[in-house]
Amino acid sequence: MHARTHARKHGASKPAGAHLQRKNTCHARCRLAEYLSNTEENFAGCNILELGAGLGYLGLTIARNTLASLICLTEQAEGGALSWCRLNVEKNRHLPNSGVVRTCECDWRDYASRSTPSELDIQNKPEGCHKEQRFSTGCQRQQESSQTLQIQEHNSCIQTHQGATNTPRCRDTCSGKEADRLFLTSTKWDYIIGSDLVYNSVGSTLLPLVMKKLCSPTTVILYCHTKHRFDHLDVEFFEHLNKNGFNVEEVREPWLPTPPPSPPPLTELFPEQRIAIYRISLN
Ligand SMILES: C[S@@+](CC[C@H](N)C(=O)[O-])C[C@H]1O[C@@H](n2cnc3c(N)ncnc32)[C@H](O)[C@@H]1O
């Protein structure tokens, strides 16, 4: 189905700018979901990988709003994060296009010293992304999808593992960490996405490595970040991206006003936080 038809089918009509009022309450995940749902880039036939998917909002919204072929939501098993993500994926299987969503375990710490995809036998996708004109449906579509999206949060869970309190039972295809790793490293990802992933040194130092190991020269990484939450980690993260050969540029969302200039990192005690989407690709 053409993207525009798909959009109409789900009742989209408003222009993108309408969401301006909500920007202060919007998390990084909403901003990226909104950007990906409205950008001219076309995702038809694309393989999209989400790192640190959390409760699954971003990946599930993208599945609903685009024509991607595969959207793989990944999480670490630690703390029950992957189980929560899988629970929400299963709860939303009734949504259109949710069949393209799968989940995998991906703990960044496991990728720090392992082989890269270029060392593995990568099977090329027979068809790449189709470049078609993308619809511009505005935030109404995202709002609609978030209204029907059922995200179960930690404090409201009723399904539990035996013995473990408050961790949902996994009902997705749990193929195991190694099988998941093989799948992740042998799939050619057109896009890698993520939001608010840098809040400790694992994120700032290992995430660039994981990105490098899972991307190909043509992969586009779209990472949405809340700047100035942890200035020192921001600095470290961008240094590590640079070290790993990535080019980083902030994406301008045409429906938003030009963001104010950011103070240089570590110069203000309480700098104003702001959300920024970065387009990251190999040099
Ligand atoms: C602040 S949350 C953001 C979640 C989601 N992206 C969002 O915006 O709602 C950070 C996420 O990174 C994940 N994470 C942290 N360390 C990780 C690691 N070593 N491997 C994989 N995921 C990790 C956490 O489990 C958590 O879901």
Automatic annotation (TrEMBL):
Concerning InterPro entries, the annotation shows: Methyltransf_16, SAM-dependent_MTases_sf
Chain residue ranges for the region called Disordered? 1-20
Top-rank taxon, per record: Eukaryota
Lineage runs:
Eukaryota, Viridiplantae, Chlorophyta, core chlorophytes, Chlorophyceae
Per its record, how is this protein called by name? Uncharacterized protein
Bias kind Basic residues: ranges? 1-12
